[in-house]
Amino acid sequence: MTFSHRPVLLDEAVTALMQNNAYADQVQSQTIYLDGTFGRGGHTRKILEVLPKDGCLISTDKDPQAIQEAGLIEDQRLRIYHKSFTKMSELVAPNSLNGILLDLGISSPQIDQAERGFSFRLDGPLDMRMNNQTGQSAQEWLATASEKEIARVIKTYGEERFAIQIAKAIIASRQQGTTIGTTRQLAQIVARVVRTRDFEQDPATRTFQAIRIHVNQELADLEEGLNMSLPLLKAGGRLVVISFHSLEDRIVKQFMQRHSKVEIPRGMALRESELPKSPLKIIARIKPSAAEVKTNPRARSAVMRVAEKVGVTG
After folding, report:
1. What is the DSSP letter of 94?
2. pLDDT of residue 139
3. Which helix (H) or strand (E) holds 13?
4. pLDDT tens sequence across 106-136
5. Residue 91's closest CA among 78, 103, 106, 104?
6. Domain that residue 211 falls in
7. How far, in Å, CA of 249 to CA of 241, rounded?
8. Interior CA angle at 240 toward 97 and 158, to 5°?
9. 300 and 230 fall within a common domain
10. SS3 of residue 245 by DSSP
């Protein structure tokens, strides 16, 4: 079966990533970009369309199916790695990247394949791992986690106000000898507890999001990847991050704000020429257009933030 995926903010992301002439007068080495979340390759293919002939694009992804899809691209400028973007420092030297793109969350094909276990609308094994070749599945975690831990995860990562009730229902089902092994089983347990929900939102939406984030360590990986990005970017290099829910966006926003400011000790008098430079300059915050949201509802919650590394590399 063929699954389609429509990249969000495709043109805007690639333009923001590659459109920078602030350091054009510097001696240029090889142009190198990194797409840390290949997905189904929409952004990677678009970057290759405008990448210089002697340029290099590194694409990484946790998902074995994404890597299989990447293998179909015949382009000598592309280097593919079955790795998390948290491993990018293993692939490139400091001050070597012209840009880093991270398109967070899950892709449409992952949701649309019941056997991946991401969807509460399709019945399948309760897996939820982006790399289903390693680590603990959602089913395995729910079979052993305590009520307190389950409630904490659903509350923290799903911002679910019924987190305690859902955790109690999961534990009660376990105590009755029921193995919660499919997405439908979990969705039904949640639906019995969550009686009210926002307009057009399935009762299980927040719980599935929370468990997926926990199983894949998505927020921890995001923080690690962001911290790793600064030393790897060249002066003038761009960091472009597309997020799809408030937890991700908050981390990206706070990271960019924190590194775009310089703290001067109170009472220290410095001339303007002596002021230290902040390592990042915030460039933009971009939301999808109404036209894009109309044709691709998944884009509705997307936020893209762009920042640029400041300074001259030595």
Report:
1. T
2. 97
3. helix 10-18
4. 887 888 889 999 998 899 999 999 999 999 9
5. 78
6. 116-215
7. 9
8. 130
9. yes
10. coil
Q: What is the pLDDT of residues 198-215, one digit of tens each?
A: 666 789 999 999 999 999
Burial of 191 (0-12, 13-18, 19+ CB in 10 A): middle
CA angle, 270 as apex, 269 and 276 as ends, to 5°? 130
Tokens standing for residue 170: 């999961």
DSSP structure string for 27-82: PP---EEEES--TTSHHHHHHHHHS-TT-EEEEE-S-HHHHHHHTT---TTEEEE-
Instruction: Look at residue 1 and tell me if it is in a domain.
Output: no
Domain tally for the chain? 2
Helices 147-158 and 205-216 cross at an angle (nearest 10°) of 100
Determine contact, residues 170/192, Cβ cutoff 8 Å.
Answer: no
CATH no. for residue 159? Answer: 1.10.150.170
244-280 pLDDT tens trace: 999 999 999 999 999 998 655 555 555 555 445 679 9
- Is the distance from CB of 304 to CB of 240 less than 8 angstroms? yes
Is 156 among the domain residues?
yes
pTM for the whole thing? Answer: 0.90
